[in-house]
Amino acid sequence: MSPRNPQAAPKFWSTVKKLVDSRPNFILVTYGAAGQDRRGARAVTEILARHVPTPPLAHLTCVGTSIEEITQIVTDYLDSGVRDET
């Protein structure tokens, strides 16, 4: 399990541990402008949802995205285990 770049996994998990240890309400995962890395952000969000106690919050960029695309993105997040914790 790692972010987009497997070589970045140790630093990624070290950062996640520091975040979790600070006891935030959530961990925000975002992607580049215009959704350039939507798949990678979803994969990281899914990893966090399955493996850390702090819920991930998926930041969605909707500018220039159709309702159908947004619906599919939200469905993909739900299918990967991301839930609203409120």
From TrEMBL:
Keywords, A to Z, come to: FAD, Flavoprotein, Oxidoreductase
Q: Which cofactor does it need?
A: FAD
What SUPFAM superfamilies does its record include?
A: FAD-linked oxidoreductase (SSF51730)
Q: Which pathway, metabolic or otherwise, does it act in?
A: One-carbon metabolism; tetrahydrofolate interconversion
Regarding protein family, the annotation reads: Belongs to the methylenetetrahydrofolate reductase family.
Mind telling me what this protein is named?
Methylenetetrahydrofolate reductase
Q: Which organism is it from?
A: Trueperella bonasi
